Structure formats: structure tokens, C-alpha cells
């Protein structure tokens, strides 16, 4: 499997940085984008569709409530290190909150996004995809 982040570092001459120095909200910032890209790729991989239909399907999976639910479905599968990253993200103090989410769902979603960002930035894309696949198993979109 290709380590996209390693390819980006090499192509743009970026230094390797110690991931442990990243704030959980920085990890969540990256994880939010990576997770959305995976969902969009999953949806478009099923064939061509109207963009508004794709957006509605993606929005059903890329929101605080859905991410909180997904996290609960995979929680038992997480390693201690992954749980630690999730908890750091969940407990981070964010200045914002999602419009249509409870504080609990928003915090869990932030933890989930931090985990996705950490997995991506550490080159663990295969593990990230395994966890997302497990989390989506019983959903309509999978």
C-alpha cells in the first residue's frame, strides 16, 4: 500500500516531524479531510451519480453523529495506542462545535478524526481502512 504522506513529504521536500508534537486538534484537522476523501472515494467508486446525491450520501457519513456512532462500532478493536490518540482528541478543547450535534457526539467525532489523522500521518493507511470498513459494515452506504 502506498504511504501517501511519505510521497507528499518526498515530492515537496518536507521534513519528517515528530507526530507526538502535534496537537490532537491538528490531527483531527487532517483526519477530517482524510476520512471525507475516503468516503467520497467509496461513494464515487460505486459508479457515476449526480453530485447532489453524492453530497447527501457523504453528508450522512461525514458528520459528528455518524462519526460518533462509527467510533462506538470500532472501539473494541482499537489498540491501547489508538485509544490514547482517540481520547486525546475527544478531550481536546475546541473553540467550535458542530451545528447539529450534541457535545458528546462532537467530542467523540473529534477523537475519531484525531485517530484518522494520526493513522494517516504515521503511514498506517491499511489500518485506517480496516477500521473504517469495520465501522461502516452495518450501514446503508457500505
Number of strands: 0
Percent in helix: 55-70%
Enumerate how many helices there are, as a single number.
7
What spatial form do the alpha-carbon principal axes imply?
globular
The name of the CATH architecture is Orthogonal Bundle
| CATH H-tier superfamily | Ribonuclease III domain
Return the CATH topology: Ribonuclease iii, N-terminal Endonuclease Domain, Chain A
Order of helices and strands: HHHHHHH
The top-level CATH class is Mainly Alpha
The main pleated sheet reads as: none
- Average pLDDT: 92
- The unreliable regions are none
Please provide a brief summary of the model.
Helix 2 crosses helix 5. With 142 residues, the chain is mainly α. It is globular, with a radius of gyration of 15 Å.
Structure description:
With 142 residues, the protein is mainly alpha-helical. The protein has one domain: Ribonuclease III domain (Ribonuclease iii, N-terminal Endonuclease Domain, Chain A, Orthogonal Bundle), CATH 1.10.1520. 67% of the residues lie in helices and 0% in strands. It has helices at residues 4-12, 24-44, 51-61, 64-74, 80-91, 103-121, 125-136. Helix 2 (24-44) packs across helix 6 (103-121). The protein is globular and about 40 Å long. The chain starts with a helix and ends in a 6-residue tail after the last helix. The mean pLDDT is 92.
Amino acid at each position: 500500500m502506498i504511504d501517501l504522506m511519505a510521497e507528499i513529504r518526498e515530492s515537496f521536500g518536507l521534513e519528517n516531524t515528530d507526530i507526538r508534537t502535534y496537537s490532537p486538534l491538528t490531527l483531527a484537522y487532517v483526519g477530517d479531510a482524510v476520512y471525507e476523501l475516503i468516503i467520497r472515494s467509496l461513494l464515487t467508486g460505486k459508479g457515476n451519480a449526480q453530485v447532489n446525491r453524492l453530497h447527501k450520501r457523504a453528508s450522512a457519513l461525514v458528520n459528528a453523529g455518524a462519526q460518533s456512532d462509527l467510533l462506538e462500532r470500532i472501539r473494541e478493536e482499537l489498540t491501547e495506542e489508538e485509544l490514547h490518540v482517540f481520547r486525546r482528541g475527544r478531550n481536546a478543547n475546541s473553540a467550535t462545535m458542530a451545528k447539529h450535534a450534541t457535545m458528546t457526539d462532537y467530542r467523540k467525532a473529534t477523537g475519531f478524526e484525531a485517530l484518522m489523522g494520526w493513522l494517516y500521518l504515521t503511514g498506517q493507511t491499511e489500518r485506517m481502512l480496516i477500521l473504517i470498513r469495520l465501522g461502516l459494515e452495518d450501514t446503508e452506504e457500505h
